[in-house]
From TrEMBL:
Keyword Signal attributed: yes
Annotated protein name in UniProt: Uncharacterized protein
UniProt GO cellular component terms: cytoplasm
Signal peptide location: 1-24
Keywords: Signal
Record-linked InterPro entries: Calycin (IPR012674)
Species, as recorded: Ceratopteris richardii
Length: 428
């Protein structure tokens, strides 16, 4: 599908103009892309976004070597754990014009492993635990939306309240109080879920730095454990407050039931109480699950990282993986990558440069649904140079965000280390 926003000259001039006039732009940083409203995004996101693709790519210009400037933390920790200086080289044995409608491009990814093998495994497990925390937080969000059991309970409470508004003011007061508590609990869950998502974002960023040997290792490990403890306390507080308040609403409803003689009112209030009880049980399960996941990150997985880092004389190995990219004429922006015995779709959704002068940066996106039917999204920023100016990075990531691409919780964008002296060990 031809990208509606794209004309090569227009995009090149547009990106350059934005750099020259960055002071006129609204303030935007990478951090701004993973702000609050986690519940709103996760409940609304049921399928993979379909951003427009750049389909008029000149293959001769596209071929060559690119530096990975950054990617999502999930991909960094699972597929590039312990690797720095990541580079991708695209090549073809047969010229594009000599191939048929379907074009095959060889891809070779190269990186330098800077941590031990035990740490590589631990980083992957941290990522899976972080993703599970995000998924459970999203389920808590879904438990609070307009189709939830709590919403159904509120409807039943509201029906009885309307019926007795003038006839039984003494019973109306506790029912109104119960409804207010439920609404307050819903708002509290939304706030805590937002906070939890940001906690996972911090955990993912710290893990990505540890994975690439960034900063004082001991300091980062302490920060990781401290962040996990803070998040666990937030979840514990959420469980205590919300579950306690919802239990109190059941007591209020029970008091009213003892006064009501109308069978319809008794039935509606009993159903409301049962729905609230079911929601309490689900919340207990989610809170327990999230606390267990956080404990695994801050406990045994962090311990593994610490123990592995204490080993001396760890060899820095060059890691090479090879695969193939399949493109179709007329849809150059839509690709299928086969690598490491996996096949995934990829889309080129933005680029900077001229066909005759070269492409200086590319924004690549991939999304698949997991076994639960939830989107698993990854973003990759590639460049012909080891770095891209921060304003350009922010513009490209903001573009992805406008397409509905999620970069929050465990899928936060993290930079790839390209400036260490060890990168010189890799062949150019």
């Amino acid at each position: 599908m031809e990208a509606t926003i794209y004309k090569e000259l227009w995009l090149f001039l547009f990106m350059k103009l934005l750099v020259l006039n960055v002071v006129a732009l609204p303030p935007l940083t990478v951090e701004a892309l993973d702000s609050s409203d986690f519940c709103m995004r996760r409940v609304a996101t049921k399928t993979c976004p379909t951003p427009p693709t750049i389909d008029t790519i000149d293959l001769h210009t596209f071929l060559g070597s690119y530096y990975e400037v950054g990617t999502t933390a999930r991909y960094k920790l699972r597929s590039e754990g312990g690797l720095v200086c990541m580079r991708s080289n695209f090549s073809m044995d047969t010229p594009p014009e000599a191939q048929a409608n379907v074009v095959t491009i060889d891809v070779q990814n190269t990186g330098l492993q800077v941590v031990g093998i035990e740490s590589v495994s631990a980083f992957s497990k941290i990522s899976y635990s972080a993703a599970d925390v995000c998924a459970n937080a999203a389920r808590m969000c879904a438990m609070m939306d307009t189709s939830s059991k709590l919403s159904e309970a509120l409807v039943r409470i509201g029906t009885v309240s309307n019926d007795i508004a003038f006839s039984s003011p003494m019973d109306l007061k506790p029912l109104n109080h119960a409804a207010a508590i439920i609404n307050s609990s819903v708002a509290n869950v939304y706030r805590k879920a937002d906070a939890l998502a940001l906690t996972v974002t911090v955990i993912s960023r710290i893990a990505a730095e540890l994975s690439q040997g960034v900063g004082p290792y001991d300091t980062l490990l302490r920060a990781l454990r401290s962040t996990v403890t803070s998040g666990s306390n937030e979840v514990r507080e959420l469980g205590s407050n919300v579950i306690g308040n919802l239990t109190y609403t059941r007591n209020l409803i029970a008091q009213v039931i003892t006064h009501r003689t109308n069978p319809s009112h008794v039935e509606l209030l009993s159903e409301a109480s049962t729905l609230i009880e079911q929601e309490i049980e689900l919340l207990i399960s989610q809170v327990s699950r999230i606390q267990g996941l956080l404990s695994s990150i801050g406990g045994p997985l962090a311990d593994t990282l610490e123990a592995d880092a204490s080993l001396t004389n760890q060899t820095k190995n060059i890691v090479v993986t090879k695969g193939q990219v399949i493109q179709t004429t007329g849809e150059r922006g839509n690709m299928v990558l086969s690598i490491k015995q996996t096949i995934r779709p990829y889309k080129i959704i933005a680029l900077e440069g001229f066909p005759l002068l070269g492409y200086s940066s590319l924004l690549v996106y991939s999304c698949e649904l997991d076994s639960n039917g939830d989107p698993v999204e990854d973003v990759f920023l590639l460049s012909s140079s080891p770095s891209i100016p921060a304003p350009i990075v922010n513009i490209l990531l903001n573009l992805a965000s406008t397409y509905g691409i999620s970069m929050d919780c465990d899928s936060v964008f993290v930079p790839t280390v390209q400036t260490t002296g060890d990168c010189g060990l890799l062949p150019h």
